[in-house]
Design goal:
Blueprint: E1 2-7, E2 10-15, E3 21-23, H1 25-30, H2 35-40, E4 44-52, E5 59-63, E6 68-70, E7 75-79, H3 85-95, E8 99-104, H4 117-120, H5 131-140, E9 143-146, H6 149-156, E10 162-164, H7 171-174, E11 188-193, H8 210-214, E12 217-224, H9 233-237, E13 244-248, E14 263-266, H10 272-275, H11 280-287, E15 292-295, H12 298-306, E16 311-313, H13 318-324, H14 329-342, H15 348-370
Parallel strand pairs: 1-4, 1-7, 7-8, 8-9, 9-10, 11-12, 11-14, 12-13, 14-15, 15-16
Antiparallel strand pairs: 2-3, 4-5, 5-6
Helix pairs in contact: 3-5
Length: 371
């Protein structure tokens, strides 16, 4: 069985060392990072952009690594394709025997207006490509892979062949991240990774407590991107600009290079869109051995309480006390060792086997239904 991973989450500007396009964070975590582990297991996999052969009707994958078009896939796993044309193309592909699966990793039907993606998936703005077409594509696909229990529940109402496949992290990528030691030892460095353009009022929840935090902490933003209409991190949290350092936006397989901080944070506004989000940022911190504090969400409740990975702030006010306990190097070192050990169960190599099993399950169910 050959599997084609086709993602619409690719950078429009960033290229890797050999000039190939770089995947976005979601594309990398949900599909791209599994390419190598699956191939090492002897599984035939293609990765790239969705293609369609108008003559045969088959879906394919246009590989960005230069290996050409792959129209011989038995299964297509697509991600974030929302164009109306996909509906008719998908029906043709299914009619010739291909199994089409959609991977869903965000609750696009509950986007905050603060999130840059909100206007991009609005049917009023883009009649031919939007969240409503995305819903219809999901409904008519052969199966769905959902990244969180929230999304699994929602997608199961649209497609009965929905399987929960949670997120995993490449522990090898973060294995060489060393404990960060700032030149100025007067304050602990608290860090956050991400795009400020794609938030839902998350960072702002710390504003009422920022003066208390700044008494013992400075901040680092990994993923700084200076563009018009893209808010700056220090303004979002209300910190003094001189108390914040930054490192630039990088490809997902290089985010470990920006971990120039001692403790991580995951501030989240308490809204349904964030209830659908996964604990991937926490896994990345943990794989790097960086203690972290996360806001309450269903996934972070599970990560911290069931798997004892990270600290849970049930209200924004709790960030102050929970971060303050990591002022002492010995506490950070103790937690770091525990995190690196506990996160191994979430390694991408574990996830690769589970992903393959989920795809095979949908493939089998689809053929049973077609008989």
């Amino acid at each position: 069985m050959k599997i084609g991973f086709a993602s619409n989450d690719w950078s429009r500007s960033m290229r890797d060392a050999v000039g190939a396009p770089v995947m976005g964070g979601s594309g990398h975590i949900r599909l791209g990072q599994f390419f190598g582990p699956l191939r090492s297991k002897g599984i035939d996999v293609a990765l790239g952009i969705l293609a369609h052969n108008s003559v045969t009707g088959a879906f394919g994958v246009h590989a960005v690594n230069g290996s050409g078009d792959h129209f011989d896939c038995d299964v297509i796993v697509m991600q974030r394709y929302m164009h109306e044309q996909v509906i008719s193309d998908m029906k043709r592909a299914q009619s010739i025997g291909q199994v089409v699966i959609n991977d869903v990793d965000d609750w696009y039907w509950g986007l905050s207006q603060k999130n840059a993606a909100h206007s991009l998936v609005n049917p009023k703005n883009y009649p031919a490509e939007n969240s409503e077409w995305y819903r219809r594509i999901i409904e008519q696909s052969d199966g769905v892979l959902a990244s969180t229990p929230f999304l699994h529940e929602k997608m199961s109402k649209w497609n009965e062949n929905t399987i929960l496949h949670t997120n995993y992290v490449s522990c090898d990528q973060y294995a060489n991240v060393e404990a960060f030691e700032p030149a100025n030892h007067s304050k602990m460095v608290v860090g956050w990774m991400g795009s400020t353009a794609h938030r839902s009022g998350d960072l702002e929840i710390l504003r009422p407590y920022i003066r208390q935090l700044e008494k013992f902490a400075s901040f680092h933003h990994a993923g700084d991107f200076i563009q018009p209409k893209v808010p700056r991190f220090y303004k979002e949290i209300g910190a003094s600009s001189g108390n914040v350092t930054t490192s630039p936006f990088v490809a997902p397989n290089q985010v470990h290079l920006g971990m120039k901080f001692q403790v991580g944070i995951v501030p989240l506004n308490d809204i349904p869109f964030n209830h659908a989000k996964s604990y991937i940022k926490g896994l990345e911190y943990a794989a790097a051995g960086i203690p972290f504090v996360a806001s309450w969400s269903p996934q972070y409740e599970e990560l911290t309480q069931t798997h004892t990975i990270g600290d849970l702030a049930r209200s924004p006010a709790e960030y102050v006390e929970l971060l303050e306990k990591y002022l002492y190097p010995e506490e950070r070192a103790k937690e770091s060792a525990l995190l690196r050990r506990r996160v191994k169960k979430f390694d991408v190599r574990v996830g690769a086997g589970l992903l393959y099993s989920a795809i095979r399950q949908i493939h089998k169910a689809t053929w049973n239904e077609r008989r």
